Predict the structure of 2-aminomuconic 6-semialdehyde dehydrogenase.
Amino acid sequence: MVSSHELVSLKHEIQKNISLYINGEFTKAVIGTTIKNMNPFTNERINEVAEGQSEDINKAVAAAREAFDHGPWKTMKLKKRMEYIYRIANLIDEDIERIAYLEALDTGLPISQTRNMVSRASENFRFYARMVESRLVGDAYQVDDEFINYTINAPVGVAGLITPWNAPFMLETWKLAPALATGNTVVLKPAELSPLSANLLAEIIHKADLPKGVFNVVHGYGETAGDALVKHPDVQLISFTGETTTGTTIIKNSADTLKSCSMELGGKSPIIVFEDADFDRALDACVWGIYSFNGERCTANSRLFIQESIQAEFIKALKQRVENIKLGDPLNASTEVGPLIDKGHYNKVKSYLAIAHEEGAEVVSGDIPNEFEKGNFVAPTLILNASNNMRIAQEEIFGPVLTVMTFKDEDEVIKLANDVDYGLAGYVWTNDIKRGHRVAHKVEAGMLWVNAQNVRDLRTPFGGSKSSGIGREGGHYGFDFYTEQKIIHVSIADHRIQQFGKN
Ligand code: NAD
């Protein structure tokens, strides 16, 4: 862990201007304009970021295309390619403190949480190195005495990766590792609100000395740079994480060039607490699941369904916890909730508190200490007396706001939990093992946890159903997305061939 003295020195290292990274070089944007990168805690400028647009995307895609078609990356010996991947992992480990610091500074996420999050990033690379080494196996089919058919896994081409601001480094590496390990080349368009750690990723990859053009970063806005990447005919696939509405736009815009799309989208996930649950553990998990990462978490348990018989006690305990949550400077190690990413998002989250009032719910939230008035703080909030048809129970707020509802029995809560457009995650708390499984099977979501908070294993599938996404990331699901399976048919005898035109 770094001391406050070291934090100051990290601060001095922040570059005034952040460049794009194209064809192995750090470069300005063609148009030459920049985006002001703001600090969510002070609302002062951190630095300026090159604003990439379609010209820059064209350059980056051309570099990635050239590297894919004619460079050594996809054809080099697997052992050598994996050496690069392990080198990236080692370089990330060497820079963990800096990455955690940049991430907290840039996003407002508390540094104790960014440390945990980024410490998993190097494992993304090691995991996919191991996976590719073990998974480059195909199927073989004997076809009578005439053919032997077999499959191979080939890289797809140029991968376009588009990422959000809420867990930038983790999500970028989570996509980049399988894309590179399987032999693709990449253009990354990181979120415009959190460019610092993506820039550090480019520095790390530059240090790892990957062949030119294999990895490119174009900062810029979604509607310009992101859009150009999505529509580019030389890009074969798009892996996107972000809002559901953005996802649907991307699917439409990628249709003309027929790209494969992996979509990790929004959520409004239920946590269901039955009266027989382990009260204290369910309470801990519920509070952590909504207020960690400032509530800006796709898998946040933002809808609590608590069984009527224990509602009074549970809500009382929740209120006490919420009152005690420590707001503060994201760079302070003891801070539990920091400021939201930017003023726009702050206004959106605040607007939902007004909507809650209008809808007749009760809003319980603490005060923001005066010393933090410059930051984009929304105090941890409970919305009580809510019902499932209200907007606050249906729409993704993406902030530290928990909508609390009650239920009578299992049938009712399953109906309520599923009566929502999203289907990313769900959490079930009960000590009745049969009921735990039963409810988990019936909740419409891609990922369920029973008597657990959101603990993940890299081998398992990650993704949502309904409006929360298409496809899965993680494990071999990532491998499958970034590879094209080919079948090779080889004749081992003289099978009959039609003789058209022969007299
Ligand atoms: P966003 O959709 O606004 O932006 C995500 C990325 O898409 C950014 O890089 C943005 O510049 C780009 N973009 C925007 N418009 C585009 C367009 N027309 N064409 C191409 N690119 C475009 O999302 P956000 O606000 O950055 O992130 C928060 C959202 O992400 C929440 O909804 C959250 O639930 C979701 N999320 C989902 C997961 C998951 O795994 N399911 C994980 C993290 C975040």
Notes: The pocket of nicotinamide-adenine-dinucleotide is lined by residues 162-167, 189, 191-192, 221-223, 226-227, 230, 241-243, 246, 249-250, 264-267, 298, 396, 398, 424, 464, 468-469 (CB under 6 Å). The first helix runs from residue 4 to 12. Residues 270-450 form a domain with the Aldehyde Dehydrogenase; Chain A, domain 2 fold (CATH 3.40.309.10). The chain has two domains: 4-265+468-487, 270-450.
